[in-house]
């Protein structure tokens, strides 16, 4: 699976992003359903915001995946009508994609977990090397 991620200049959102239309195409989902999932995620995340003491909730000062991570936008369809879409930053894309089911979603999740595990092992190896070879580092 390949997902093209582009950068946006000039609208105050300079993180890598992907269109909700592209997300739908890559994961074999109707764009309307992707929009629904994003809107539900925004609503749920706003409800979670400010709560504490639950597993996995960000501490005070850490960010939540609220509206600022899902930028509302529009595009012109084949009939020159303006339609809604969202632009997703990398983290918000992962947040949404982790909720999908199906072959493409499983492939994405496995690749994400594999990359995470490789990064974790790299950091463990780096830390071990620093401890073992303190005079060289």
Describe this structure in words.
- The chain has helices at residues 20-27, 31-48, 90-97, 103-132, and strands at residues 6-7, 16-19, 70-76, 82-89.
- With 137 residues, the chain is α+β, with helices and mostly antiparallel strands.
- It has two domains: 6-100, no CATH class; 101-137.
- The protein has a four-stranded antiparallel β-sheet with strand order 1-2-4-3.
- Strand 3 and strand 4 (82-89) form a beta hairpin.
- Series of H and E elements: EEHHEEHH
Helix content: 40-55%
Give the distance, in angstroms, between the N- and C-terminal Cα atoms: 39 Å
Order of strands side by side in the largest beta sheet?
A: 1-2-4-3
Major beta-sheet overview: 4 strands, antiparallel
Give descriptors for this structure.
single chain; 137 residues; alpha+beta; four-stranded antiparallel β-sheet; 4 helices; 47% helix; 15% strand
Summarize the structure.
By secondary structure, this protein is α+β, with helices and mostly antiparallel strands.
SSE arrangement:
Elements: E1 6-7, E2 16-19, H1 20-27, H2 31-48, E3 70-76, E4 82-89, H3 90-97, H4 103-132
Antiparallel strand pairs: 1-2, 2-4, 3-4
């Amino acid at each position: 699976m390949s997902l093209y991620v582009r950068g946006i200049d000039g609208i105050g959102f300079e993180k890598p992003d992907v269109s909700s239309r592209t997300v739908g195409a890559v994961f074999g989902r109707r764009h309307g359903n992707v929009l629904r999932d994003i809107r539900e995620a925004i609503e749920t995340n706003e409800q979670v915001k400010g709560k504490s003491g639950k597993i996995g909730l960000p501490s005070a000062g850490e960010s939540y995946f609220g509206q600022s991570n899902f930028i509302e936008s529009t595009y012109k369809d084949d009939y020159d009508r303006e339609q809604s879409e969202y632009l997703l930053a990398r983290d918000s894309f992962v947040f949404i994609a982790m909720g999908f089911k199906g072959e493409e979603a499983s492939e994405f999740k496995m690749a994400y977990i594999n990359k995470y595990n490789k990064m974790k092992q790299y950091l463990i190896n780096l830390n071990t090397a620093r401890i073992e070879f303190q005079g060289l580092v």
